[in-house]
TrEMBL record:
Domain of life: Archaea
Transmembrane segments: none
GO molecular-function term, one example from the UniProt record: kinase activity
Aspartate/glutamate/uridylate kinase domain: residues covered: 4-63
Keywords carried by this UniProt record: Kinase, Transferase
Species: Methanohalophilus mahii (strain ATCC 35705 / DSM 5219 / SLP)
Protein name: Aspartate/glutamate/uridylate kinase
Length: 209
């Protein structure tokens, strides 16, 4: 059986994103791994945030425009890598980039707020496909007073207030008894080691305890 992994690729890594995905595609080849890449919103979502400040949107509109910004990042990654996109959770070989808009309008059960961003949306896709969940970002993991936390419970993230995950993710992980690993995408081997189940780098967030 194939191991399923959902990897949320942060908008923070937009410059490195295409090369990173091509390296992952090559690495996944001949391995029994199905890798679904959930794009963040990055600069596309920031435009929506700016527009919201100047013109104002209601929460529903802001939510769908933000999800369309993930769709835009996905289409950008497809163009740069020629990796196929998918709009469903059907099984596939190798790597696919998820375009989330249609799936989420058909399965509309997340709160429509800026507390739900691609971190929580990635968790939803991992939960629905029974996959391990990894967030790839531009920091080593969750930092507390400058120190990297190797492991933290989702409820302790809620107590921390600000972290490098969106505010709804810890609640989502607890509700669905899921875990999530945060890993720095500037070091390719950290991503592959994490996919292989090695916890030597990054932060492991426990939603099940
Ligand atoms: N406690 C924290 N630990 C780590 N990163 C934090 C923390 N608080 C805020 N951050 C910020 O979160 C950023 C990562 O989140 P974000 O910008 O949303 O990235 P991505 O686009 O990859 O989701 C880091 O670059 C860092 O500046
Ligand atoms: Mg983010």
């Amino acid at each position: 059986m194939k191991e399923k992994v959902v990897l949320k690729l942060g908008g923070s890594l937009i410059k490195q994103g295409p090369e990173l995905l091509l390296s992952l595609k090559n690495w996944v080849k001949d391995r029994k791994i199905q890798l679904l890449v959930v794009p963040g919103g990055g600069p596309f979502a920031n435009q929506i945030r700016d527009m919201e400040e100047t013109t104002g949107f209601d929460d529903d509109t802001a939510h769908w425009l933000a999800i369309l910004s993930m769709e835009q990042y996905g289409i950008y990654l497809r163009e740069k890598t020629k990796i196929e996109t998918t709009a469903t959770l059907s099984s596939f070989e190798g790597v696919r980039i998820l375009l989330p808009y249609r799936f989420l309008t058909d399965n509309d059960d997340l709160p429509h707020s800026w507390g739900v961003t691609s971190d929580t949306i990635g968790a939803k896709f991992a939960q629905m496909s029974g996959a391990n969940y990894i967030k790839v970002t531009d920091v080593d993991g969750i930092l507390q007073e400058g120190n990297l936390l190797r492991e933290i419970t989702a409820s302790d993230i809620i107590k921390m207030g600000q972290s490098c995950v969106d505010t709804c993710l810890p609640n989502y992980l607890i509700k669905h008894e899921m875990n999530c690993t945060i890993v720095n995408g500037n070091y390719f081997s950290r991503i592959t080691e994490t996919i292989m189940g090695n916890r030597d780098t990054g932060t492991y967030i426990r939603g099940k305890f």
